Amino acid sequence: MARRKKKPNILLSLILLILLAIGAWRGGLLGDTRTYEPVEGTLEVHIVDVEQADCTLMIGEAGNVLIDAGDVETADEVAQYLRNLGITRLEYAIFTHPDADHIGGAATVISNFDIANVILPGLHESDVPTTKVYAKMIAALEQKPETNVIPATPGEICQIGELKMKILAPLSENYSNINDYSVVARFDFGATSFLFTGDALEKSEGEMLERHPASELRADFFQAGHHGAKNANTPEFIRAVSPKIVAVSCGADNKYGHPTKEALASFAAVSATVYRTDELGTMVFVSDGEEIVKK
Length: 295
Known about the structure:
Blueprint: H1 10-30, E1 43-47, E2 56-60, E3 63-67, H2 75-84, E4 89-94, H3 100-103, H4 106-112, E5 114-120, H5 132-142, E6 148-151, E7 157-160, E8 163-169, E9 184-189, E10 192-196, H6 202-211, H7 214-217, E11 221-223, H8 235-241, E12 245-248, H9 261-269, E13 273-276, H10 277-280, E14 283-287, E15 292-294
Parallel strand pairs: 3-4, 4-5, 5-6, 10-11, 11-12, 12-13
Antiparallel strand pairs: 1-2, 1-14, 2-3, 7-8, 8-9, 9-10, 14-15
Helix pairs in contact: 2-4, 4-5
């Protein structure tokens, strides 16, 4: 007797389709969890969208560098972003200054990733914060004795394979505004250059103009100071940097009005192309050592 063909289980097929759709939806939310492999011989700069906060990740063949870690509310998102890229180790983490929108995720990153070196600004004793977020960062570092904690020293040079990092600021030991303690770091990769100033304001920018030669300030890529505030990104400083690309990390419809019309005017004056996280979300820029392009 011939065997009857099994009828397809429509209900089971429907359930499987729903599960696959849910999986794809979750993947879209959480990001691709496969190990990330950047193109050989390139440097990638990820301006991570952490709303009205700062977090930048540099991925190179010889190691990775993190500059700031977003706010407390985005701490888990920053950690997940690193995990999604398959990153388990950072050669350097720079926490530019103690404001919560720059170090809010620092304790989470320090606790969950292998970090060889952490660079912090050398604060004047009277300016050391007593905030919970700062205390959590210091407590996390105390639990990682294998991590080398380095006070930011202008002129200090670090080499990470083909990537060279030089600390340019802070240049004074006592500021009236804690933003001016921001660690300023310049990176060179081949013939391309990058400048990150944290929340450094007019005071620090002026000191850098006085103390550093034009060649050290000139950079192809500049992350807007203080999220594009008008009390940073002064016309004189931006003329000295003369970037081709400016990346602004700011939240959509933020209450500060960042980036301000004054900052945007400074960028326009040097014909820089401006990219903003409030408009584009997370942004990735790639250098092959000759030019920088947005991915």
